[in-house]
Amino acid sequence: MNTEKFLELLANGKNDTDFEEFLKFVSDKLWNQYNKHLMDEILMTENKVNGIALNLPNASENKPYEQTIDFGDTKIAIERVDGLSAETHGLNVTVCDDKKSFKIAGTPDLNPIRNAGTEIESTFELTVFYKYEGLCLPPKKPLLERKLQLVINQDPRYLWKNIPVDWEKMSDPKYEKEDADCQYVTVKALPDGTPQKDIVAASKRGRSHAQEGKPRDDDFQLYHDEQTNWYVIAVADGAGSAKFSREGSRLACNVTVEVCKKALSNCEKFEENINLWHIDQKSEDAGKLVSTDIYNILGKAAHKAHTEINAEAAREKNRPKDYATTLLLAICKKFDFGWFIASFWVGDGAMCLYDKENHTSVLLGTPDEGEYGGQTRFLTMPEIFANPTDFFSRLKCRIVPDFTALFLMSDGVSDPKFETDVNLNSTEKWNALWDDLKDNGVELTDDNEAAKEQLLNWLDFWAPGNHDDRTIAILY
Amino acid sequence: MRRLPVYLLLDVSGSMRGEPIAAVNAGVKALVEALRTDPYALETAFLSIIPFNNTVEQSVPLTELYKIKPPELEAKQGTYLGKALKFLSATAEREVVKSSKEKKGDWKPIVFIMTDGKSGDKIAKALTDFNKSLFSQIVVCAYGNEANIVDLKLITENVIRLDNIDGETIKSFFKWVSASISTSSHSANDNHGDEQPISDLPPLPSSFSFVI
User: Fold this and answer.
1) How, if at all, do strands A218-224 and A405-409 pair?
2) Is B76 on the interface with A (CB under 8 A)?
């Protein structure tokens, strides 16, 4: 059958005008049907492709990321992927040669967005444009789309804020305290040029407190007696959960150092006992005499601090536990035969006598830690003093020929640097800390007053999840 | 590093069908999204999502916040909170790390429980197998009028009641949850006992020597 015959049959004897109208009608109808069919096909295909489970793990800023996303459908031909760029996100997106998959790679960097002053969302939308084999696409929709969400976590370093404490608005009692503090106690070399040990200490508000505009809760106090040559060092860490712990820690340091200062200004008997004990360290009698002295000095100092904190709490009609604080306290002196060191410790943190030359490190007690993070004991707890065995186990003393450094630190430093009890007892770890200080700008050389600022700067070290107040005191 | 474990125990029973479950899903997403902007949460929070109905399973095991991809939860069946509580207790017991000489322990976990109905099983009975001391904070959010507040109070004093069960209310609850996680204590737990000051030091035992 030729075309003419076909048209004649189709015209069905109608005139040209009618036939034209008829053809238009049929054509429109069929095209509509065809387009609808196409759109259905497209919809079905898109639904099918949208249903393909794709594994797109979250990315993190400044951490290298590489992920190939494979649709696993042989009919897909990816044209391009929009939504991410090296310039804006630090991530490149490339379609793989097989066109069935694409790759996201790079080190995410959100600074371009951050610098533009826009608020950063952590979820970014990607659009994958693709063709599908066997599917005819109309000009108004030349490509199919699949949306995907990629999470880029911001680097937490950019999220920490440093909000000053609003002392004006702080409710009374304010117990105002600086966000940072540092001190250097220079003990000049002897006339013959022999250097004498100095003390350096620094204390800084933690990022977690800075983030909320809360004050520093840690404290420290240093003392050196020019006449008797006794050193006294106290470090205290006020509990973050206790409202006035910044005052608790201040009182703990001040009161104990004051008591020791007084006791040590006139202590010939104590020094005689130390001498006796030195001569015969196995002597039970000498041991007891020294123990009693330490008990009377450090034990009473700790108890006086406990009592004064209670008194302050009562004055202000607060609970003693609102002043909860730990305490690390050490006294020491150089004798002809070597160094005598005595200490008292309640709570967490670390107190250690470190000797680099002889490769030894001795913890001056045991940190109080519970089964879970953050559980410790405080000077403000009556039970600290209630059980004699428990209380005496907090007092320690020893004689050593010499040492490199005596460290006292709050858990803001010991947690990130040591993490576990096992590490606290590892001399390797103390070596590492000693090197860490040296390698990061803290020059622990004789009479170097600048070390106090250096130590304060050192306290800014980065350790994820460890943003408590940090305090460290070093006798070296 | 010490982790801060956060458990979400979510009711996905049939009565949650429709707007409520959609709101819970959106809420979990918003919660995760909000926490992503908190540096402390981002560095330390670990989240676990445990949906429950007739059965209970951990749809997201304890996972670093930055890795979390919130699931799409479906609502069906009944509310078996007792079973879910037992499961939660056993899961936390297994997942949460306690301090030892070799390892730093986690912070005590925080739990948020959301339910809209009466429990199909006995809560009081289940609580005998629920180790409350594992958690630092348990918050129950009850919404709608069906929830049995008296029973829920057996779990914790912290029962929050939302009268409406619409999307906005659930969203605002999740907003509050994220704020609580953010501010949640990373400071020392108060284990204070008696607050009476001791009048004086105990006497020194005669045989005692604390020389090391």
Assistant:
1) unpaired
2) no
CATH number, residue B171: 3.40.50.410
**Chain A residues 119-158 with CB within 8 Å of chain B:** 120-123, 151, 153-154, 156-157
Using one digit for the tens of pLDDT, what is the confidence trace for A68-114?
999 988 899 999 999 999 999 999 999 999 999 999 999 999 999 88
- What contacts B5, CB < 8 A, 6 or more positions away? B46, B48, B62, B92, B95, B96, B106, B107, B109, B110
Q: Do B210 and A465 touch (CB under 8 A)?
A: no
Tens digit of each residue's pLDDT (9 = 90 or more) over A289-300: 999 999 999 999
Q: In angstroms, how far is the first alpha carbon of chain B from the final one?
A: 31
- Tell me the C-alpha distance between A329 and A406, whole Å: 11
Counted across chains A and B, CB pairs separated by less than 8 A come out at 195
Give A161→chain B minimum CA distance, Å: 9
| Rounded CA separation A210/B39 (Å) | 12
How close is the nearest chain B Cα to the Cα of A153, in Å? 6
Question: Which tens digits make up the pLDDT trace of B89-137?
Answer: 999 999 998 877 777 788 888 888 988 878 888 888 888 888 888 888 8
Percent helix, strand, coil in chain B (nearest 5)? 35, 20, 45
Q: Which CATH class is domain A59-155?
A: mainly beta
Question: Is B3 domain-assigned?
Answer: no
Nearest neighbour of B43 by CB, restricted to A156, A300, A392: A156
Among B190, B198, B187, which Cα is nearest to A321's?
B190
Domain residue spans in chain A? 1-26, 59-155, 160-475
Per-residue confidence band for B188, with pLDDT thresholds at 50, 70 and 90: very low
Domain A160-475 listed as CATH 1.10.287.470: no
Contact A58 B203 (CB under 8 A): no
Number of domains in chain B: 1
Q: Is the dihedral of CA A360, A365, A368, A370 positive or negative?
A: positive
CB A80 within 8 A of CB A129: yes
> Which ipTM score applies to this complex?
0.74
Min Cα–Cα distance to chain B from A393, Å: 7
